[in-house]
Amino acid sequence: MKFLIVGPGAMGLLFSSRLKIAGEDVFLLDYKKERADYLNRKGIKVEGIKGSFHVYVPTVTKKEIDFLPDFVMVFVKSYSTRDAAYEIRDAVGKDTCILTLQNGVGNVEILEEVLKKKVYGGITSEGATLISTGHVRHAGSGDTIIGPVSEKTALLKDILNRAGFKTEVRDDVESFIWGKLLINVGINALTAITMLKNGMIVQIDELRDIMRCTVKEAMEIVKKKGIHLPYEDPIDKTEEVCRKTSGNISSMLQDILSKRITEIDSINGAIVKEAERLGIDVPVNKTITYLIRAIQRTYKDRIERK
Asked: Which helix (H) or strand (E) holds 128?
């Protein structure tokens, strides 16, 4: 099968490299010509829990796509979803299956709006960190959930499993997307503000209390929308994830450390937006969202220790 993997970040590199090793016809899409050329010269280096390997995956820019892929998998940051949709629009055929495994909510809707066709959603619990261009550390393995059920997603599930990704197809995939969102709401922004690894959130009483408040506020949104989560207690689940990923540097903290734009607007910011629409007060999520926005807008003004 022919794959187009959109985005050369940690997840894009991990999935494209393992699919290539599994024998699939894989292309990686990058909007930066210089970086695409570098990846074509140097290849992708992966190290981590399943060993180390080096593989070459053809990397193309929009102008170089001269084929219609069977599958498109979107891994760009959520704030780039609309731009990515326009990048791939001419490469999407009537039989192309599009899947997003991005963080946050709203990505499926944006892709469908631009591409004018069905888009499948999902989550992945694979843990990966971008070390440098083309170099990724696979820090942890976890389930990948995609859906809803169809012939396309059933086929994709089998391919992903052969590539080493434990994958399941579910009709209630929205439940899992929101389930992951609530966990990210409780962890990502707090680690980014405090510059601490995940495990510290449950070790410091004050941070644990703030985390619980953010998740409780998000639970009100979920209840109002009538969404059934894939676990019983969101706060217990978030604390469990903190402990299980105690040594992880969250993706939002990685962005802050690298002075990049974060995905705050599709995580805590998404809770704030939905709360405003539903008439619910979420003061803790609003405060955290504003803090992250302020941090990412003032990187050049940071006071550095001499």
From this structure: strand 127-132
